[in-house]
Amino acid sequence: MLDISRDIQSLSNFKRNTYSAIAQMKQTGEPIILTVNGKAEVVVQDAKSYQQLLEKIEKLEAVAGIKQGLAEIKSGKTRPVAEFMQEMQQKHGISS
């Protein structure tokens, strides 16, 4: 969880203390939000945590796709596979 007192810092401070900031990110797994003129501008994250975030997003997208497919089945937006195969064979000139 983001700790405002620890995980938000100025870009200038980050530049002065880059190695300690990297060590902090590796230890906590949390990103650091960098500010410029008092406004949040950039989020910096260690590579391992970023990879984990990407993997979580991929799983969530897969779950969302499965839910959508199940909803389409439930609402009757499907057709028999034999019908689909026949249509594709005719459309692309594939012999059975």
TrEMBL record:
<dbReference type="InterPro" id="IPR006442">
    <property type="entry name" value="Antitoxin_Phd/YefM"/>
</dbReference>
<protein>
    <recommendedName>
        <fullName>Antitoxin</fullName>
    </recommendedName>
</protein>
<dbReference type="InterPro" id="IPR051405">
    <property type="entry name" value="phD/YefM_antitoxin"/>
</dbReference>
<comment type="similarity">
    <text>Belongs to the phD/YefM antitoxin family.</text>
</comment>
<dbReference type="InterPro" id="IPR036165">
    <property type="entry name" value="YefM-like_sf"/>
</dbReference>
<comment type="function">
    <text>Antitoxin component of a type II toxin-antitoxin (TA) system.</text>
</comment>
<dbReference type="Pfam" id="PF02604">
    <property type="entry name" value="PhdYeFM_antitox"/>
</dbReference>
